[in-house]
Amino acid sequence: MFIRIGSYIWTQHVKQKMKFYGLSEARVKRVVRFPERIEEGIAPDTVACMQRTTNIKKPQEVWAMYQVKNKNVIKIISAWKYPGVSSKNNPIPQEILDELKSLLG
């Protein structure tokens, strides 16, 4: 089951994860729109992006995994908090990053 709000589609999975980790819709959208790092998602045709939190004593990262359905619709699949600092894995090529930035505005 999906919930469409504006140009975002939210899965039931992400809604449950947001509740579990105490994340708001605004926080997840901010991670998607202004990521510090972007990588390939684990699921096919997905993107994972991250922002660090500002807590110096307890560093964390907020991650979101999404899929671009068309020019105006982004399907948010999952969101989570990672304790500490994660290592860089599969970086996305720059031309794909540029295309994603143009789609997100």
Keywords:
single chain; 105 residues; alpha+beta; 6-stranded mixed sheet; 3 helices
Q: Strands, helices and their partners?
A:
Elements lengths: L1 E4 L2 E4 H10 L3 H9 L3 E4 L6 E6 L7 E11 L2 E11 L10 H11 L1
Parallel strand pairs: 2-6
Antiparallel strand pairs: 1-2, 3-4, 4-5, 5-6
Mean pLDDT: 83
Order of helices and strands: EEHHEEEEH
The biggest beta sheet reads:
6 strands, mixed
Rg (CA only): 13 Å
Secondary-structure-derived class = alpha+beta
In spatial order, strands of the major sheet run 1-2-6-5-4-3
The structural domain count equals 1
Shape: globular
With helices defined by DSSP (H or I, 4 residues minimum), what is the helix count?
Answer: 3
End-to-end Cα distance: 27 Å
- Report low-confidence residues grouped into runs of 5 or more: none
Count of strand segments:
6
- Please estimate the helix content: 25-40%
Q: What share of residues are in beta strands?
A: 35-45%
Give a structural overview.
The protein has 105 residues and is of the alpha+beta class. The chain has one domain (2-104). Helices cover 29% and strands 38% of the residues. The protein has 3 helices and 6 strands; from the N terminus they run ββααββββα. The chain has a 6-stranded mixed sheet. The longest helix has 11 residues, at 94-104. The chain is globular. It starts with a strand and ends with a helix. The model has no long low-confidence stretch (mean pLDDT 83).
